[in-house]
Design goal:
With 280 residues, the chain is of the alpha+beta class. The protein has helices at residues 2-15, 234-242, 250-272; strands at residues 28-32, 48-50, 54-57, 63-67, 72-75, 86-96, 104-110, 118-124, 133-138, 145-150, 159-166, 171-176, 179-185, 198-200, 203-204, 215-216, 219-228. Strands 1, 3, 4, 6, 11, 12, 13 and 17 form an eight-stranded antiparallel sheet that branches. β3 (54-57) and β4 form a beta hairpin. The longest helix is centred in the last third of the chain and has 23 residues, at 250-272.
C-alpha cells in the first residue's frame, strides 16, 4: 500500500495538488463529490438544497448525498447539451420507494418539462414487473422518445451507473457497474434544451396529480456524480466503475499520505519488537 501511494504523494506535493486516480478528466464539466457539500469541484454549477437532504457514510468515499421525500438537491443553471453528445456517471443506492408513488425512484433528472427536453435515469419497483433500471431520453414532447433498460437487480446495494448520449453514433447507452446493459438508436432525437433545474435523486412532474405530489423521490443515495460534455467510451465507463477517484482536496490527500507513512512505520516497529503484526 505504501509503495503504491508514496509516488502519488510525492507527485502531489511537487505539482501542488493531489494525484487523482481513476478520474477521467477529458470532457469533465461537473463533479459532485458530496463530501458534506453540494459544490461542483470542477465547474461552477454548485447545487442547492431543497428541504433538508442529508450526507451519510459511503463505501465509495467518506460521504454521500442522501435524499428522501421533500429533501433533495438541484442545480438551478444545469447543463444544456443541445445537439451535443454528453455522459452522466454516478454511484447510487436505492433502498425504498416513495409511499404514494411506489413505481420508481429517480436517480437524476435533466428536463425542460414533464418527460421532455432531457434525460432521466430511474430505478423501478420489481413488484410492478417493469425493468429494474431505465434511462429515458426525449427532446420536444412532439418528438420521439427512447428508453434503454436493464433487468439486473439493483435495490439495497451500491451500484455504478453511466448513461451515454452519443450524437455522432446516434446511440443511447446504459451501463451498470461497467457493463453495457442496452444500447438503442436515437435517430430523430432533436435538440435537448432543458430549462428546469437539474435534479439529484428526484423527478418533477411539474404538477401534483394522481394522488401523489409534484416531486417524486425515493430513499436514494448518490456519490461521485460526474457530467461530461462528450460521449464516454466503453473502456472509460469500465474505468470509472472500477476505481474510486481521490478527493480533489489537497488536505484530504495529504492526510492520506501521512496516515499511510505512519502506518508503514508502525508496522516496522511492531515487527522489530517480535509482537503480533497489525491486522492479525
Amino acid at each position: 500500500m505504501f509503495l503504491r501511494l508514496a509516488p502519488l504523494c510525492v507527485l502531489s506535493f511537487v505539482l501542488g495538488g493531489p494525484a487523482v486516480a481513476g478520474l477521467i478528466s477529458n470532457g469533465l464539466i461537473s463533479r459532485y463529490e458530496f463530501e458534506g457539500t453540494l459544490t461542483d469541484s470542477v465547474g461552477q454549477a454548485d447545487g442547492t438544497a431543497i428541504g433538508s437532504p442529508n450526507f451519510s457514510s459511503s463505501p465509495v468515499s467518506a460521504q454521500s448525498l442522501q435524499v428522501s421525500r421533500g429533501n433533495f438537491a438541484q442545480v438551478t443553471n444545469g447543463f444544456v447539451p443541445g445537439l451535443s453528445s454528453f455522459s452522466i456517471s454516478t454511484w447510487f443506492r436505492v433502498d425504498d420507494f416513495q409511499a404514494d408513488f411506489p413505481l420508481r425512484a429517480p436517480i437524476f433528472t435533466m428536463q425542460g418539462g414533464d418527460f421532455e427536453h432531457g434525460l432521466t435515469a430511474q430505478v423501478h419497483n420489481p413488484a410492478f414487473g417493469d425493468p429494474t433500471l431505465t434511462a429515458f431520453l426525449r427532446g420536444a414532447r412532439s418528438g420521439p422518445s427512447f428508453t434503454a433498460a436493464s433487468n439486473t437487480s439493483v435495490l439495497g446495494e451500491w451500484n455504478h451507473l453511466s448513461v451515454v448520449v452519443d450524437r455522432q453514433g446516434e446511440l443511447l447507452s446504459l451501463y451498470l457497474n461497467g457493463m453495457l446493459q442496452e444500447e438503442v438508436g436515437i435517430t430523430g432525437l432533436g435538440s435537448l434544451d432543458p430549462d428546469q433545474p437539474f435534479l439529484f435523486g428526484t423527478y418533477d412532474f411539474t404538477t401534483a396529480r394522481n394522488g401523489h405530489g409534484r416531486f417524486i423521490t425515493g430513499d436514494t443515495r448518490l456519490d461521485e456524480f460526474l457530467i461530461y460534455d462528450r460521449a464516454l467510451t466503453a473502456s472509460e465507463v469500465s474505468t470509472l466503475s472500477g476505481t474510486v477517484p481521490e478527493p480533489t482536496s489537497l488536505a484530504s490527500f495529504a492526510g492520506l499520505c501521512l496516515v499511510t507513512v505512519f502506518t508503514r512505520r508502525r508496522k516496522k516497529r511492531v515487527r522489530s519488537g517480535g509482537t503480533q503484526k497489525l491486522g492479525q
